[in-house]
Amino acid sequence: MSVWAGWFLLASLATSHAQGTASSPVTFSRDIQPLLAKHCVVCHGPDVDEAGLRLDRAGEGSESDAIAAVIEPGDAEASELLRRVTTEDAAARMPPDGDPLEPSEVAKLRQWIDQGAQWETHWAFQPVSRPAVPQSAGRADNPRAANPIDAFVQRRLEAADLSLSEPADRATLIKRLSYDLTGLPNPACSAWRSRGGVLVTWTVTDEAGLTTAREMADNIIFEHVRP
Question: pTM for the complete prediction?
Answer without folding.
Answer: 0.55
